[in-house]
Design goal:
Layout (H helix, E strand, L loop, with lengths): L9 H27 L16 H15 L36 E3 L12 E2 L5 E4 L3 E5 L5 E6 L11 E3 L2 E4 L2 E2 L2 E8 L5 E6 L13 E3 L2 E6 L7 E8 L5 E11 L11 E5 L5 E5 L4 E5 L12 E3 L4 E10 L2 E10 L5 E6 L9 E4 L6 E8 L8 H10 L6 E7 L5 E6 L31 E2 L5 E4 L5 E5 L13 E5 L9 E3 L2 E4 L6 E5 L1
Antiparallel strand pairs: 1-32, 2-3, 3-4, 4-5, 6-7, 7-9, 8-9, 9-10, 11-12, 12-13, 13-14, 15-16, 16-17, 18-19, 19-20, 20-21, 22-23, 23-24, 24-25, 26-27, 27-28, 28-29, 30-31, 31-32
């Protein structure tokens, strides 16, 4: 059939072929039984009774799951949030006791700004991206290659690993240039300049799914992202763009693996698009200002979880809401005790444990100001900046546990007052990096206040995080994003370094 030539029409075509294969198998089995039983009374030209319209539908549904491929799972940590789900959870166990310290560090002698989680490929090699350079290390710390952006460019977007290449999006004067770099050699495959697009420079995350390279742009706003752009991963050729009426921050689109893309705005508006740029549904109102630096992630249970802040007649409050991926309807909505601060993590809290949504909440660090102003702000906030992480039941939104971070007696993130590399501005991170959930149920948090890297695990499942259930490593440098995990390895890179590698 001609429509079978379309890559987005594979599902009905393959279902059609499968049904005819089932019919052919029926005829073969029928004839074999007739011969074996010396029976000539069976009419093998009849339609097989087992092939009903229901089975055709079921075959079509089964094939739907294999039409699109999650190539991001070819690597241990392929992009911000680990894979296309952006759930920041992994099935493998990583070091959770920091008492013996890291196995090795990269000192970041040039004091470059590290805005994103390091990436980890299938061979446990580590890729760390600063605003000016991309480096590849072996798991034991040997530097393999360094790739540099052009002198006037900055790399503020998180890179992504895909089919042997690492993709970056440097920008100059807010005009982005996409580049594909060979993971083995560090040489450039291709680059493409997009003079008609604007990149705001926040800490967005690149995504590649089914050969389509997705990133954010700003069309009708000055800060953040309001537009999803799609180009070909093979060569960077432009495909389409979708302009919203909402503001995303640190833009990170996700996918449930069915050929669609989901993302949420800072105020809780949720969108679901096809990979052809068609809007399937949306929930929530438009807005032209940012509410909080948060967004959403896909769970393995058919739900999309959005962390956001909204303002009503009763004032402003932060929430996590669970939406059905099928139609956007709200399953539950839970109010958070502090300001929403990040994208959520979604994963199982250990073997046999509950599926949880783990949300980072807290007070956002500020840029340096006059000492009098900083003192007044601290006083108004009770004398310190607050941070916490909360785990919610993914099915109901009920609180499973809550862990308070130690207070920070400053309004500026640790390290942001220090002298940095040439051309580097302040990191100005969110309150925390995205939480990470490991296969044994350990939750990793990374503070943007004092720079503490923590492991939290409710080992006795009593709903209370006791001191013995927490391990802390003090980096004394703020984090903008989460650590990354692989089997037996954890990599953490604060804004101003060093990068720490912990191994079992």
């Amino acid at each position: 059939k001609p429509f079978c030539l379309s890559p987005f029409a594979l599902e009905p075509c393959r279902a059609y072929l499968l049904v005819h294969m089932m019919r052919a198998l029926w005829h073969i089995l029928c004839l074999a039984l007739a011969v074996a039983n010396h029976c000539d009374q069976v009419d093998c030209h009849d339609e097989p009774p087992a092939v009903s319209m229901l089975q055709v539908h079921l075959a079509q549904k089964a094939l739907q799951q294999t039409t699109y491929h999650d190539d991001s799972r070819a690597y241990y940590w392929s992009n911000r949030g680990r894979d296309v789900l952006r759930s920041s959870s992994a099935p493998y166990k990583s070091p959770s006791n920091f008492s013996s310290g890291p196995s090795w560090i990269w000192p970041n002698d040039l004091k470059e700004q590290v805005r994103h989680s390091p990436l980890i490929d299938a061979d446990m090699n580590i890729y760390v991206c600063t605003t000016t350079r991309l480096r590849k290390f072996t798991s034991s710390g040997t530097l393999l290659w360094t790739w540099s952006a052009e002198p006037a460019q900055k790399m503020t977007a998180s890179p992504v690993l895909y089919k042997g290449s690492i993709y970056v999006l440097p920008h100059e004067s807010h005009i982005p240039t996409a580049a594909s770099i060979d993971m083995a050699t560090g040489t450039m495959n291709w680059k493409r300049h997009y003079a008609n697009l604007t990149h705001s420079g926040d800490a967005e995350s690149l995504s590649i799914y089914n050969g389509i390279f997705l990133f954010g742009a700003a069309t009708n706003i000055m800060k953040g992202m309001d537009t999803l752009v799609a180009v070909r991963a093979a060569d960077g050729n432009y495909l389409w763009e979708y302009v919203t009426d909402a503001v995303m921050w640190n833009f990170m689109p996700s996918s449930p693996g069915d050929g669609t893309v989901l993302f949420s705005s800072t105020c809780g508006t949720v969108f679901r698009l096809s990979l052809e740029g068609e809007l399937l549904w949306r929930v929530g109102a438009g807005h032209d200002s940012m509410c909080v630096p948060a967004g959403g992630a896909v769970g393995p249970n058919g739900l999309f979880y959005a962390e956001y802040r909204e303002t009503s007649e009763d004032g402003a409050a932060s929430y996590v809401a669970a939406h059905n991926i099928s139609d956007g309807s709200v399953v539950w909505k839970s109010k958070l005790p502090y300001r929403a601060a990040q994208y959520p993590a979604v994963g199982q809290l250990g073997p046999g444990g509950p599926l949880a949504v783990v949300a980072a909440i807290g007070d956002n660090p500020l840029l340096p100001a006059f000492p009098e102003t900083e003192a007044l702000l601290l006083k108004r906030n009770g004398g310190a900046w607050r941070n916490a992480v909360i785990a919610l039941d993914a099915a109901t939104g009920a609180t499973l546990w809550h862990s308070q971070d130690r207070p920070w007696n400053d309004t500026v993130a640790a390290g942001d007052r220090d002298k940095h590399g040439e051309g580097e501005g302040a990191c100005w991170p969110d309150a925390q990096g995205i939480p990470v959930i490991a296969g044994d149920g350990s939750v990793y948090t990374s503070s943007s206040h004092h720079g503490d890297l923590r492991t939290i695990r409710d080992a006795d499942a009593d709903g209370i995080i006791s001191p013995w259930e927490v391990s802390t490593f003090e980096t004394k440098q703020c984090f903008l994003n989460s650590p990354s995990v692989a089997p037996g390895m954890l990599v953490a890179a604060p804004c101003w370094g060093p990068m720490y590698v912990f191994k079992d």
